[in-house]
């Protein structure tokens, strides 16, 4: 079960590196296609804010990848649970404040990762 959890950890990390790229480097180009409901005239004025958001997504991704390299198995799980938990909280808040789709894209894979880790750790 630990391998399933690690697959989810990598998946969530890759998603957040994609969010980093999208928000930091492609906000005014690809971002317009991804966030169609966002007013087109606001992409340029919100470029710095989106880049800041992207930076935080990068921190989440880096923390998740870091968890895979921790040698102590208990701390590996603790760190992964922390970062996956942060992703779930961000996904729940995004679903509440922006779009329900954020929950499915961001929080659900992280929840599966958490469940996989807990199943491995406690069962």
Give an overview in words:
This protein has 123 residues and is mainly α. The chain has one domain (2-122). Helices cover 81% and strands 0% of the residues. It has 5 helices and no strands. It has helices at 2-25, 30-34, 47-69, 73-97, 100-122. Helix 1 packs antiparallel against helix 3 (47-69) and helix 3 packs antiparallel against helix 4 (73-97). The longest helix has 25 residues, at 73-97. The mean pLDDT is 96.
Supply database-style keywords.
single chain; 123 residues; mainly alpha; 5 helices
How many strand units?
Answer: 0
What integer is the average pLDDT? Answer: 96
Instruction: Using the alpha-carbon principal axes, give the shape.
Output: elongated
What portion of the residues fall into strands of 2 or more residues? under 5%
The computed structural class is mainly alpha
Radius of gyration, CA atoms, in whole angstroms: 15 Å
First and last CA, distance: 10 Å
Q: Spans with pLDDT under 50 lasting ≥5 residues?
A: none
Number of helical regions:
5
Whole-number count of domains: 1
Order of helix and strand elements from N to C terminus: HHHHH
* Major sheet size, sense and barrel closure: none
């Amino acid at each position: 079960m630990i391998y399933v959890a690690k697959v989810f950890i990598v998946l969530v990390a890759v998603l957040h590196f994609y969010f980093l790229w999208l928000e930091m480097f492609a906000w005014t180009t690809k971002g317009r296609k991804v966030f169609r409901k966002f007013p087109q005239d606001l992409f340029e004025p919100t470029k710095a804010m989106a880049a800041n958001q992207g930076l935080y997504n990068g921190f989440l991704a880096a923390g998740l990848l870091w968890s895979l390299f921790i040698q102590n198995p208990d701390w590996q799980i603790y760190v992964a649970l922390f970062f996956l938990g942060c992703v779930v909280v961000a996904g729940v808040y995004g679903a509440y404040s922006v779009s329900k789709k954020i929950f499915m894209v961001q929080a659900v894979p992280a929840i599966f990762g958490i469940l996989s880790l807990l199943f491995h750790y406690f069962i």
